[in-house]
Amino acid sequence: MADLRAMAEELGFREPRTLVATGNLIFEAGEAPLSEIEGRLEAAFRDRFGKHVDILLRTAEAWKRVAARNPFPRGDGQSVGIRVMRKPLGREILQKLEALTTPDIKLDIVDGDLWVDFSGKPSETKLLSHLTTKKLGIGTLRNANTVNGLAKILG
Predict the structure, then answer these.
(1) φ, ψ at 46 (rounded to 5°)
(2) What percent of the residues of the chain are helix, what percent strand, and what percent coil, each to the nearest 5?
(3) Neighbours of 45 (CB within 10 A)
(4) Angle 18-85-17 (CA atoms, 0-180°, nearest 5)?
(5) Rounded Cα–Cα distance for residues 55 and 113 (Å)
(6) Which mean pLDDT values do the consecutive 10-residue runs of the chain (155 residues) have?
(7) What is the DSSP string of 43-60?
(8) How many CA atoms, within 13 angstroms, populate the side-chain half-sphere of residue 72?
(9) pLDDT of res. 31
(10) For 53, which of 46, 94, 131, 138 is 20 to 30 Å away at the CA?
(11) What residues have CB less than 8 Å from 110, skipping those under 6 apart?
(12) Of 53, 49, 39, 52, which Cα lies nearest the Cα of 11?
């Protein structure tokens, strides 16, 4: 995480901070489009760490909105997750994914991002292997504890 913060500072981003070892980075940037900043971060990450990683950005307000719109707020923070997407998913994906789940797993699309209440350990479900970039597009899966922790840092 220290290397990730240092990379952001070298790119000119202000006050980079991380949440534990989640791979999430919070920083202040200028008014450049998010896609431009994503590209700069991806290139710097590849140069510094030797591999490509898709990086997805949200403004502070957008991230706080993500946390506030959790459709499964009563679920365990470890068993509820969100696949934050670069390009929004349509609701039609729900039918395909529901065919791969057990009745205790709940799914919803909120603002193009996929929320899942795994009702247990995500790693113990077949669904997890279908929540990939190859099958859904560029995105990243975070649990509700991480989503809420980042929102708290953002105020």
Answers:
(1) -60, -45
(2) 40, 20, 40
(3) 18
(4) 10
(5) 15
(6) 92 91 88 93 96 94 96 88 96 95 95 95 90 95 93 92
(7) HHHHHHHSS--------H
(8) 24
(9) 87
(10) 94
(11) 66, 69, 70, 71
(12) 39
Phi–psi pair at 81, nearest 5 degrees: -135, 165
Rounded Cα gap, residues 122 and 19, in angstroms: 21
Place of tokens 């795994």: 118
Q: What is the distance, to the nearest Å, from the Cα of residue 45 to the centroid of all Cα atoms in its chain?
A: 17
**Max CA-CA distance within the chain?**
48
The answer to whether residues 109 and 115 touch, using CB atoms and an 8 Å cutoff, is yes
Identity of the residue numbered 143: N
Q: Which domains does the chain have, with CATH numbers?
A: 2-49 (no CATH), 71-154 (3.30.70)
